[in-house]
Amino acid sequence: MEIQHDTKSLGCACVHFDVYSFRKWIVQPVVQSKKTIEQTNIRISLISTSQMSGGARLENANPLIFQRTGERLQTANDEDEDVADPIDDREIFDLIRSINDPEHPLSLEELNVVEQVRVRVDDQENTVGVEFTPTIPHCSMATLIGLSIKVKLLRSLPERFKIDVHITPGTHASEDAVNKQLADKERVAAALENSQLLEVVNQCLISNARTG
Amino acid sequence: MAAGSALLVGLVEEFVSGQQDSKAADTATGLKAGQFTILQLVEALGLHLASSQPQTRARGVQLLSNVLQQCHGDLTEREVDVLLAFYENRLKDHYVITPHVLKGMNALTKCSVLPPGSAVSILKSLFQDVHVQSLMLVERSCVYNILTQLMESRESELKGLGADFVFGFVQSVDGERDPRNLLLAFQIARKIIHGGYDLGKFTEELFEVTSCYFPIDFSPPPNDPHGITQEELILALRAVLTGTPRFAEFLLPLIIEKLDSDVQSAKVDSLQTLTACASVYEHKELAEFLPGLWASLRREVFQTASERVESAGLAALGALTACISRSVLNSDSEDYLNVFLDLVLKDCQHHLCEPDLKLVWPSAKLLQATSTASYRASHRVAAAIMPSLIEQYNSRTQCAQRRTLLEVLQGFVQPGKSSEEDESVLLDFRQSLCSIVFSALSENSAGLQITSLRVLTALSQQTVLLLESDVELAVDHLTRLILEEEDAKVSLAVVECAGALAGLHPLAFISKMVPRLKGEIFSESMAQGDSATPSQKHSQQAVRQRCLTALAAVSSQPSVVQESTPVLLQVLTTSHTGTGSFSLEEVISVCHNLQRIAEHAQDTEETGRIFHDIIIPRLLGLALQAAMRGSSDHPSPLVEESVLSAMVPVISTTCARLQSQLAGQTASRAVSLFLDGDMSFLPENAFPSQIQILKKQAGDSWRQSQMVCLLMGCVCSLPRSVEVPQMDRLLLELEELSCTCDHPFSYTSAAKCYAGLVNKRPAGEALDSLIDGTLKRISTELDCASSSVRTQAFTLLLWVAKALLLRYHPLSTALTDKLFSLLSDSELGSLAADGFSLLMSDSPDVLNRGCNADVRIMYRQRFFTENSAKLVQGFNSAAQEKKSGYLKALSHIVNYLPRQVQLTELPALLPLLLEALSCPDQAVQLSTLSCLQPVLMDPPSALITQLEALVGRTLTLTTSPAMKVRIASLRCIHALSRFPEHEIMPFRARVLRALAVPLDDLKRMVRSEAVVARNEWFLLGSPGGR
């Protein structure tokens, strides 16, 4: 039982990881002149989510906040053993609304990234479609957020469902690239093999488990 | 003496040359017994101490030190002086000797006869000849102990050493790594700082040598034998660092630096240290660092995701502000508080104008933290932000924005700690605040209304802020909301707010609200409700319901109770006579609200009289009239079991809580009514002269006999000091009724009433023979299989058993054993099993602490320990089809045990509980699962060995046909995910596969449990998970 004599190691403990495969998911090719600056920012802000680095600046430090919806009201049918409750939009929305934003201590619902009107489910046809809206058009976290939503749904829905997660049309600079990446089964599977990426995704989902 | 010295030489020889450690103790014993002196010991050691072999010298010193450790109390000053001189000299000797020398010195410093000046010389030679950090752990601790003892006993001498002492200490501590020694070192440093030792030019050195551990990062080894926690170290170090303002110039930059850390605990520690030092510092120490500190604090509160960091940051800001506010201003110095508040306001104020954005909240919290720190600060902050907040509110039109602004305002209106004399800082804004609140109350947004109700409550707590006219206006608004607002959350907030205001301003409520509500309750449109559509009818009933609730909520002051209870009683009367159109639910609700008033009203004589002299006689009278009316064409609702059950708590709360003297009177009136038919105290007394409520009569006698529950309310909840008249006759009649009556509600109530009285009866022969008699009668009925009153006898048995069990009466065993034997009864077995749930739970209306019953603590544990073996045995010997009764009884009992007991008892019971999970009876499954789930939250090791069976059986139950069983089993599986990772990892794949099935369950409630559980299991062993 020894004590760290001098805790100088507490400085900026950056996590080093395979930047290349990681960036595929985190850093979107930003069509902007100050590309390099943006990219460095992105790396730091990502670390700040998992490590809460003190001096880092967030991309969008003061976002708009929206009201949370209340808990779903229980009906008499919910208690009745014999009535089947179909999986509906609200149920899907309840699954994803409390996912934490990777940058802010706020839920995707509070940031209006997900809305119930942008959730479509067809219990008969076994399809689920979710559109999400990044807070700013150049949000570097868009793919990561999409991935978190997708993972949450994969873990929470019966296998019969085909799950489609994509960006609300016209709300992100690299919409197509992100959508393509999210739709590619193999790329999603590969992403979840990357332990760094899985860690960030899990953390978006873990706090969600804590709050509700 | 000669024999002594020979013995001594032998002992010394055996210790030094013979290497027998036990001889040291023998020597000490001999010395204490006076067989030889310390001088003789030294002489006998002489040769060894002068030996040329360091090991031999060490052995010699070791013997001497060991003896001194036990005998230091018996030494003379002269002896101590000589010994000290010897030891100090030995410090220069070979290093193998040093540990023993230190041990001996440590013993000598404990002597009360330490010669003057010796403390200084000990320390000098210690600091000069010993390099502390090259010693072993135990020796270092020895040095710290010497320092501590000398500081306690020879403080003035050490202070004479001046800064040399501090320097010596700094040198000895520099580089210490052991947490036990660090704790000692921190304590010494704290004493140096607080004891007024001269730090001289070594202030910075002392700071350096301690602050290098900040922030402390220490995790004790598993099964830590020393019991030192990180928290202890943190607090000890904090006491040092914040001990003196002279450290300020070093500490504050360090804090600013460490706040930049990535580690959350380091941030929190830094913030808490800042809070602590702000209470010691003055503004001159802080002044230079305020901008830096503010920048760090702001950043932490603005950006953090952690509530701990946020609240620590806000506390630190408050402490800083309070510290600067304390400073006395010179005429020529600038006002630091103003300067600092300018900084805060500059960075935060503008965020308050953006009510949609995230930073409005942290900004408001920061400003609130500064404003609650001191009166001056609150003045300054209020003056700066109130006008703009008010203006913002009035200019914004969106409800969400207004609501945010109002919530921010609410934070500032919360009554602070400012003293009474201080004029409220909000006085200037009183008018605007009131008008905002009243306008928000008229808005059509639930959130806005709820917030404004909270602001109104907060305003009312500061007397000067609401004028009489404002209160009247507020009451009008509240009344309107009660009558019109349909949102349940708003209604709840309205009722709460009305309750708070009515406690302070009863008159306005009496004159304005109560009459309006009364009018609404009895309004014509409601009376003629038959013609209305169902939805209209429904909303009318809802209005009435809200009126009743509000009436109860405002009735805390006796003057309001005086006005509100007659309204409620009138509802009962009209519904009895059939002139009003009150539904059964409304009648019950009236009773609930009467009970609420009895619970919350102030216990004054006035309230007591209202309840005992008016309300209870009226309730009894109405119930009796209803019972007498018989099965006429218009049956009164007051004969309904549900209504009577709702009346009981009104009566019992009153008797238990309000004016015990009057309660005694009520009880004796009730007894003479029920036994002798004495109705003189009942209002509108027009009954036949001869009635005997408790006697069995022909025909519809249940209408009367069930009134026994009201008798129970009167006599079973009295304080134990109040006596019930005619007790023996009463008990006799109750027993008779409970054993012979065939109306379930009547005989159960009689049994409860009987049990309630038995529970409070003084112990003694009278009680014993009473119980014996009852038990005999019960046994006779139960043993006779053809008896028609077995259920009645069983009910009485159950309640009496409970009454005795609660008070640890020795005869309770006889009764509970009887219950156990009934578990295998073919007719009553299942009733008996469920009876154990009643035995272990708190009954709402009788035999609980609220009813002043004799309830011993831990009666459940006691019952369990005495009887669990009987249950297990009964289970093992029972026929297969009767086993489920035992399992059900067991799971009922275990369910009500405190968690600590569950955990310790679990190993013995686990096989049985696992058995219960595979028992086909769904009630048993459910009860067992609900008993297992809380235990699983903090798994005992016994469970871990049974994981295979546990996981397997709970997973099977996730496909049970009963929804509740599926839900309960999924909750257990969720709880299982908190087990130690290495234990449950082998099950992960299997559980995830099995949980895919309930994800597609028929019922949404099951699916949502499955989702939660499955996601937790996914996180298990995954990076970023747990």
TrEMBL record, chain A:
Highest taxon of source: Eukaryota
Alphabetical list of SUPFAM superfamilies matching this protein: Fe-S cluster assembly (FSCA) domain-like
GO annotation, cellular component aspect: cytosolic [4Fe-4S] assembly targeting complex
Domain MIP18 family-like: 90-165
Any GO BP: protein maturation
Function statement: Component of the cytosolic iron-sulfur protein assembly (CIA) complex, a multiprotein complex that mediates the incorporation of iron-sulfur cluster into extramitochondrial Fe/S proteins. As a CIA complex component and in collaboration with CIAO1 and MMS19, binds to and facilitates the assembly of most cytosolic-nuclear Fe/S proteins. As part of the mitotic spindle-associated MMXD complex it plays a role in chromosome segregation, probably by facilitating iron-sulfur cluster assembly into ERCC2/XPD.
Protein name: Cytosolic iron-sulfur assembly component 2B
Organism: Oncorhynchus kisutch (Coho salmon)
Gene name of the encoded protein: CIAO2B
UniProtKB/TrEMBL annotation, chain B:
A single Gene Ontology CC term: cytosolic [4Fe-4S] assembly targeting complex
UniProt main location, coarse: cytoplasm
UniProt domain MMS19 N-terminal: residue ranges: 42-303
Coiled-coil residue windows: none
Domain MMS19 C-terminal: 547-976
Domain of life: Eukaryota
A biological-process GO annotation: protein maturation
Pfam families, per the entry: MMS19_C, MMS19_N
Subcellular location(s) per record: Cytoplasm, Cytoskeleton, Spindle; Nucleus
Record keywords, A-Z: Cytoplasm, Cytoskeleton, DNA damage, DNA repair, Nucleus, Repeat
Annotated Gene3D superfamilies: Leucine-rich Repeat Variant
Keyword Isomerase: no
Oligomeric form and interacting partners: Component of the CIA complex.
Reported function: Key component of the cytosolic iron-sulfur protein assembly (CIA) complex, a multiprotein complex that mediates the incorporation of iron-sulfur cluster into apoproteins specifically involved in DNA metabolism and genomic integrity. In the CIA complex, MMS19 acts as an adapter between early-acting CIA components and a subset of cellular target iron-sulfur proteins.
Family: Belongs to the MET18/MMS19 family.
Protein name: MMS19 nucleotide excision repair protein
The gene coding this protein: MMS19
